[in-house]
């Protein structure tokens, strides 16, 4: 019988695929949306940022909610909510309405990865955590990669409004299936074997408890140096990630004068390499951890990833044709995706029972980076007439992010606030 935790990983992998299919759909539909609503590139950049702002602002609250009510309720609810706003994107009638809908779409998606982190905390043994998080995030890259050419074709043939409506229906199906099958406590799952249950309980993180977590005051949480380092490096990482998920397709199409299908195919290659980066890094995290070097298992893959990102970004702008440029961009995306498994594993390490809240706070900072990139890329392009300044800037930030990891220590947990005592 297939282990039940493998099905948990499958479910969260598919969720990650859906998460990014829904995100990148708007980029593939940029042409018809901007024409129909009369938007400039800068306005469209702010539409992309409105998603990132909503997504960032609700990360910590969504993480706290995931810790309080568990992965079953939070994931079923938020997938239904964001799917609704995916569909409502099709009824936007002007710039302002599109800004509001995409902001609410981002707020709806905010609980996805914190909810997954909570499920991983209770279901997945610590020795398997790196690869599991790598698989989760590879789904996001595979979803975005295959979505670019497929959705470009769907938008051309079905129209952008129908495409968004179809995606709404797919999300609702996942939400219902998750609610019916998943349980927060492996001991409550009706089909898990006694052998697998004993293995999970014996090897998951010390203190892992599916019961609702107590309160972790935000002020107390923010005293953690490790969390601040994770927030900064994740912000810088999202400069590259969000560009690839939003502006890469229109950038490649315009720069190299490609048609929609070719631009989609070229744009999917870096994202496929990102999926590979997630798997490679996740396996490396677990291999180093198994050797007894806990801190190094988080630090080494992330530092190597950021250095590859810097190199790939700098070299990509030296190329005059689309093929070599995509090769170097693929190296950059492979590198930046190497940081995902160690980053989220780090937050689960230091957060423990508050894994959702802590990882959500890191993700909030990362998506502040996403919000910056939305309008920054077209603005720099307008001012300088070239994408080079943008790529050099992001390469420098990736180097700084590698430095953050040199100072980070995943063994320094965020201690719970002791309950007040009263003497008589």
Describe the structure.
- With 424 residues, the protein is an all-alpha fold.
- It has one domain: Growth Hormone, Chain: A (Up-down Bundle).
- The chain contains 19 helices and no strands.
- The protein has helices spanning 4-28, 30-37, 41-57, 59-69, 71-88, 95-109, 112-123, 129-158, 160-181, 194-203, 218-221, 225-246, 248-255, 260-290, 294-316, 322-337, 340-351, 355-384, 388-407.
- The model has no long low-confidence stretch (mean pLDDT 86).
Question: How does CATH name the architecture?
Answer: Up-down Bundle
As a percent range, the share of strand residues is: under 5%
State the name of the first-level CATH class: Mainly Alpha
The CATH superfamily is MFS general substrate transporter like domains
Here the CATH topology equals Growth Hormone, Chain: A
What does this entry show, briefly?
The protein has 424 residues and is mostly helical. Helix content is 79%, strand content 0%. It starts with a helix and ends in a 17-residue tail after the last helix.
Topology:
Layout: H1 4-28, H2 30-37, H3 41-57, H4 59-69, H5 71-88, H6 95-109, H7 112-123, H8 129-158, H9 160-181, H10 194-203, H11 218-221, H12 225-246, H13 248-255, H14 260-290, H15 294-316, H16 322-337, H17 340-351, H18 355-384, H19 388-407
Helix pairs in contact: 1-7, 1-8, 1-9, 3-6, 3-18, 4-5, 4-7, 4-18, 5-6, 5-7, 5-9, 7-18, 8-9, 8-14, 8-17, 12-16, 12-17, 12-18, 12-19, 13-14, 14-15, 14-16, 15-16, 15-17, 15-19, 17-18
């Amino acid at each position: 019988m297939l282990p039940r935790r493998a099905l948990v990983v499958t479910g969260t992998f598919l969720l990650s695929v859906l998460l990014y299919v829904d995100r990148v759909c708007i980029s593939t539909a940029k042409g018809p949306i901007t024409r129909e609503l009369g938007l400039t590139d800068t306005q469209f950049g702010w539409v992309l940022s409105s998603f990132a702002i909503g997504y960032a602002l609700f990360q910590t609250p969504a993480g706290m909610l995931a810790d309080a009510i568990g992965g079953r309720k939070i994931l079923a609810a938020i997938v239904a909510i964001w799917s609704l706003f995916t569909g409502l994107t099709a009824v936007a009638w002007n710039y302002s309405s599109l800004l509001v809908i995409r902001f609410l779409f981002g707020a709806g998606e905010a609980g996805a990865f914190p909810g997954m982190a909570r499920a991983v905390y209770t279901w997945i043994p610590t020795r398997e955590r790196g690869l599991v998080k790598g698989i989760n995030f590879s789904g996001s890259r595979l979803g975005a990669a295959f979505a670019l050419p497929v959705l470009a074709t769907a938008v051309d043939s079905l129209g952008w409004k129908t495409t968004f409506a179809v995606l709404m229906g797919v999300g609702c199906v996942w939400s219902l299936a998750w609610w019916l099958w998943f349980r927060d406590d492996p001991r409550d799952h009706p089909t898990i074997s006694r052998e697998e249950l004993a293995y999970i309980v014996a090897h998951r993180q010390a203190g892992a408890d599916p019961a609702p977590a107590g309160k972790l005051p935000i002020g107390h949480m923010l005293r953690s140096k490790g969390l601040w380092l994770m927030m900064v490096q994740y912000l810088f990482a999202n400069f590259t990630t969000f560009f690839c998920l939003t502006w890469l397709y229109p950038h490649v199409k315009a720069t190299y004068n490609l048609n929609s299908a070719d631009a989609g195919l070229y744009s999917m290659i870096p994202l496929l390499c990102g999926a590979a980066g997630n798997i490679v890094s996740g396996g490396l995290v677990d291999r180093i951890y198994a050797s007894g070097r806990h801190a190094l298992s988080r630090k080494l893959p992330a530092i190597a990833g950021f250095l590859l990102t810097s190199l790939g970004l700098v070299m990509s702008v030296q190329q005059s044709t689309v093929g070599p440029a995509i090769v170097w961009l693929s190296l950059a995306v492979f590198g930046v995706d190497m940081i995902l498994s160690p980053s989220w594993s780090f937050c689960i390490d230091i957060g423990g029972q508050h894994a959702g809240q802590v990882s959500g706070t890191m993700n909030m900072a990362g998506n502040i980076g996403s919000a910056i990139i939305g309008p920054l890329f077209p603005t720099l392009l307008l001012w300088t007439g070239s994408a080079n300044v943008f790529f050099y800037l992001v390469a420098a930030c990736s180097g700084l992010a590698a430095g953050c990891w040199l100072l980070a220590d995943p063994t320094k947990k965020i201690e719970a606030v002791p309950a007040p005592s009263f003497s008589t």
